[in-house]
DNA sequence: CATGAATGAGATTTCATTCAT
DNA sequence: GATGAATGAAATCTCATTCAT
């Protein structure tokens, strides 16, 4: 009974997934607003009405894709267990590790990644909460992480929230260029991650060559 | 004659500007897709048909706003004359100067800035060329700038294109957080710019404390 | 299965036909330009959007009506098998036969006939090709027919293309007067056809009483 | 005073005529419905508003062009003084004369002729009265003319109204082919008129070779 | 569960005409 | 008389969603 039920559920889930996958492709190719429900169902080979047996509507489906994506990203970062970071050397190694994990996630999900960065904020105001929540989570995690590292004497004193924000920005723009716009495509992921890690590490040292306090600048 | 013509032109231009301003507000409040031409004309107090005497349509108007904005940003960076940068100290001062100029531009144009980062890529594929062109210009300018600084012995050897990309990313995300999402609002612009400049400078030094070559990492 | 499919198709076709019929009436009553899609759907009792499930738009529908009509007319003439015409007597009988067939077609389709003669050329330049094609076909058929009759010694030598053109003109104007403008309504179709046939026959004899060559006329 | 007034009037009239001429061209090129008032005034080099100082509107202007044209045609036929037609030979000469006059009129006014035959009936129901009136006049004149000729023993007994209708149809279709559709363009006007006249004359003889009465046909 | 025909709200856009200057 | 900017009514068409079969 259970087996049969599961098999049935599994069949239903498979179709659901197929429709989500088709939606990703259609959204990727035409953009959310130009994408038509008819195009999605056509790709899966079901009738228009069937769509509404699986999703509440086009917008709800988009929200689900968005959720999936954000959870994937947040999870990737959250699941990362930095273990015992007791030196900048280890820090570097760990950052590289998480950087490569993230890169892999994005590369494995190019289309939804592109959709996310292109238009997630333009679909409906409702989703902004969702997106903001993910960013807040990410930024809070990073800010905390920075604070801990500082307490361990591994990074210098600074505004850890701004640091986190900048870090996210660097990563994001590099991803967008590589994955959404296909520039930087000749650069190896590893080289890119190295640059990111290096830049992060550099920006967190105590004394920066030639850097002077604000007052002296005037 | 000329005076009369100019007066007429000026009147026309004023109304055009009023419509553009109204459009910015409506786009900002509702988003491009939910924005209606009727809302725009209502705000200016003219008839529906009048809109089409000034613009070819909603999309063309959006394109014009986008163009204006991108030109403003690119011009702000391009107009910046770094002058004789012969030390990292001067470099820091100059970066701070351009950073503050840009910040001012964004703060003075909060709404169109928000529209740009929220949905410029989601309006129509036609605009992507426009946007990409601006990014390419910006990235090329920065890449060249980095190369020059390196030749002068002011920054270390690295992939200058990736460096430029990361820099743009940092700046962007910080702007988006402050201006579009109203987080970071308690931070002073100057503090934010200082962090950005500092991070840039740090990331371009020759030896980064604790940083090791890839091979040793394994 | 087939039955079900056929039944479905047949239902669809019926509605399509109903819409075409309604369109003919609306076009007839108001003229193409003043006719509104809303009037058409109202007559059939379906929603506005339904119209676009069956036709690409008002113009395409008009084109279809035009095509149908032209095909009907051309087919009526083309299907007419003049058989073995070996005397002017048989020729007269056969012309009368085809004339009556055509008259029947026009009378059975008064409204679309009226629409055709009133405004087919004024709807859109695209349709002129269609219309010209039908006229060319008709004129070519008649020209050939005249040539054959001449070879058989049944009609005199003359410019057969001009003859065909005149013949079409006579028929047309008579139809327009009877069917579109309701003049000549007291004349029996048979009397009209007889006059047409007689005129055609008379105009194709070798010697015309009192007719003189051009030179002598001056 | 009078002179000055006349000169003034004349100037106004010239502009009016220029606008009418421009309208003919625009109507000819785009068709009445696609023609824009802006295109007409642009051609003359006056402002949009000026148009309404000279005409009540687009439709009224069209009506005026129509009137002018119909009057021209009717006048050409009505002005024709058949003089003393006392033989079929003279009849032939006179018909040829009026045919050539008409041909000249149409050729001199190709564009308005084309407009007339293409779409005069499709502009507005109001104009149908005007057009019908012209046709009625023409048909009545021809019917009378035929009746007189019959009384003089020059043409056979038949339905003179149908005869008139057929004659108008022949002439019309030939004109449309030559002038509106540019077929038959290689034929000399004189050859065409000769065919028309010959056909008319032939169709009005008493005994038609091979023609049999209706009853015998069955 | 699946189908797919039908719905219908509503936004964009056009252009003849007006009228203040 | 001339101008030309402004008007605004109104019609087409789209497509997400529904629901009877």
Could you describe the 3D structure shown?
4 copies of one chain form a homotetramer. Chain A has helices at 2-30, 37-44, 48-54, 58-79, 88-108, 110-123, 125-151, 160-180, 189-202, 214-217. The longest helix of chain A has 29 residues, at 2-30. Chain A contains 10 helices and no strands. Chain A folds into 2 domains: 1-55, Orthogonal Bundle (Arc Repressor Mutant, subunit A); 58-216, Tetracycline Repressor, domain 2, CATH 1.10.357. Helices cover 77% and strands 0% of the residues of chain A. In chain A, helix 1 (2-30) packs across helix 6 and helix 6 (110-123) crosses helix 7. Chain A is an all-alpha fold and 218 residues long. Chains in contact: A-B, C-D. The interface between C and D is large, with 59 and 59 residues. Chain A binds a DNA duplex (21 and 21 nucleotides) through residues 12, 36-38, 46-53, 57-59.
Low-confidence stretches of chain A: none
CATH architecture of the largest domain in chain A: Orthogonal Bundle
Given the C-alpha coordinates, what overall shape of chain A results? elongated
Please report the first level of CATH classification, the CATH class of the largest domain in chain A: Mainly Alpha
Provide the CATH topology of the largest domain in chain A: Tetracycline Repressor, domain 2
Number of strands of chain A: 0
Question: What is the CATH superfamily classification of the largest domain in chain A?
Answer: Tetracycline Repressor, domain 2
> What is the distance, rounded to the nearest whole angstrom, between the alpha carbons of the first and last residues of chain A?
79 Å
User: Strand-residue fraction of chain A?
Assistant: under 5%
Give the % helix of chain A.
over 70%
Largest sheet of chain A: none
Radius of gyration of chain A: 21 Å
- By oligomeric state, this entry counts as homotetramer
Number of domains of chain A: 2
